[in-house]
Design a protein that fits this description.
There is one protein chain. By secondary structure, this protein is of the alpha/beta class. The protein has a domain at about 145-415: Metallo-dependent phosphatases (Purple Acid Phosphatase, chain A, domain 2, 4-Layer Sandwich). About 35% of the residues lie in helices and about 15% in strands. It contains twelve helices and 14 strands. Strand 5 and strand 6 form a beta hairpin. InterPro entries: Ap4A_hydrolase (IPR050126), Calcineurin-like_PHP (IPR004843), Metallo-depent_PP-like (IPR029052). One of its GO terms (biological process) is polyphosphate catabolic process. It holds the Pfam family Metallophos.
């Protein structure tokens, strides 16, 4: 039997090379290293033990032993990197919430409150009646309202997989840009047999070919409304005919205060239009009643806008052609900016009307009104629930816009880019 070895008596010796050790000797060496060296955990260095980030800030040699326990915990928490990161994140979130409330939510809530107050019947009594509640004066030679023939209306329901049987194509302010108008008609694949064009006013003036735009509209038997620029040119034309200044004459012979101070280009356009073109433009109403369209209710076309809550026959023609803003107390419209946009008040009025009809009538949408308009090039294309603004500043290098309504009331918008003719004015 092989002699046994007392392993506890072995000492660590230097061996030249483990490869030359017998197996039993190597085993003994490994054992000796594990037995007499320090445990591996003693060689682990934890950074937190010596890092100043985790040292108490009390300043006492014993790490703040004299400080209250709660203060030590507070100081340790504040000096922790994670606490500082979370604090920064929460401060950013708080600042974002305050900014959102101050800049977005609070102004909208305040505006909504003012709109509801403006439409309150008690406000009407306090103001002594809203603008337009009394019958407005009629303008001689101006067609106030006209109704579109129902044969032009799209079908109430669309047939899946089939092309629309009828389309209404509403076109924003053209301002004499005939080339862009023809391009837009190509873009929408205009078909005279099934499509009907409706212009939202300001077909003429400013651009290079106003008579050409009128001829194109007449060629396709389009419908239109009277815009503020048609109104100016037509009034000028009729005054010229009355004062025998219609034939080409030297502007030097015309008093400077005659014809509302209109410039020479407008006077030239008034002379340039033919009698047939003037007659066609004169027939354009201030308000066009398109009729009932699914999901849109009663659709009206005007150039400027409408005062909500006032019957169509009592709307002021001049305001309908020129309005941009509206006074919330008296509902007096204005052609200047800086006040409440008439579209906001109109949309609020219609939304309240729709809410009042829900559950009362089978189709509450049929009781509301949607207005399609032009005139507001600064706001450009503006498609709200009950107002659709189509003037996108074509004559100044913007776009010419067409809004297409197909069977079932489906809507889509098509635009083409325009050259800038503003520098020629």
């Amino acid at each position: 039997m092989a002699p046994t070895t007392d392993r506890s008596s072995l000492e660590i010796t230097d061996f030249p090379d483990d490869d030359f050790l017998p197996a039993t000797t190597a085993t003994v060496k490994s054992y000796q290293l594990n037995r007499f060296t320090r445990p591996l955990i003693d060689y682990v260095h934890n950074e937190w033990q010596a890092n100043t980030k985790y040292v108490s800030l009390s300043g006492s040699p014993d790490g703040g032993a004299d400080s209250p326990r709660w203060m030590q915990m507070f100081l340790s928490m504040v000096t922790a990197p994670r606490f500082r990161r979370y604090t920064l994140i929460y401060l950013v979130l708080l600042a974002s919430c305050l900014a959102g409330w101050t800049l977005v939510l609070s102004p909208r809530l305040e505006e909504n409150q003012w709109l509801e107050h403006s439409l309150d019947p008690q406000t009407q009594e306090e103001a002594g009646g809203w603008f337009g509640t009394n019958t407005m004066p009629r303008f001689e030679g101006v067609t106030h309202m006209r109704t579109l023939d129902k044969i032009f209306l799209p079908a109430v329901k669309a047939v899946k997989g089939e092309a629309s049987s009828r389309r209404l194509i509403f076109i924003g302010d053209v301002h004499g840009c005939r080339d862009e108008l023809e391009l837009l008609l190509d873009e929408v694949s205009f078909d005279h047999e099934r499509d009907h064009l409706i212009f939202t006013g300001d077909m003429i003036s400013k651009g290079p070919d106003s008579p050409g735009v009128v001829d194109l509209a007449r060629q396709y038997a389009a419908s239109c409304v009277r815009g503020n620029h048609e109104d100016r040119i037509l009034l000028l034309r009729h005054d010229m005919a009355t004062t025998n200044t219609l034939p080409a004459a030297s502007d030097g012979d015309i008093p400077p205060d005659l014809f509302f101070g209109l410039n020479s280009k407008e006077r030239a356009l008034a002379r340039q239009l033919s009698d047939e073109q003037v007659q066609w433009l004169d027939a354009c109403p201030v308000i066009l009643d398109v009729g009932q369209i699914p999901a849109m209710g009663q659709v009206l076309v005007v150039h400027g806008g409408l005062v909500p809550g006032v019957a169509l026959e009592k709307q002021d023609p001049s305001s309908v052609m020129n309005m941009l803003t509206i006074d919330l107390d008296t509902h007096v419209p204005s052609g200047k900016r800086g006040g409440m946009m008439w579209t906001k008040l109109f949309n609020k009025h219609q939304s309240l009307l729709y809410a009042s009809q829900k559950g009362v009538v089978p189709d509450p949408k049929s009781k509301v009104t949607t207005v399609i308009y032009g005139h507001d090039a600064k706001t450009s294309l503006s498609l709200k629930t009950y107002t659709k603004g189509l003037d996108s500043g074509c004559v100044k290098g913007g776009k010419l816009t067409a809004m297409i309504i197909e069977d079932g009331g489906e809507q889509k918008v098509v635009q083409v880019r325009c050259r800038n003719y503003h520098h020629n004015q």
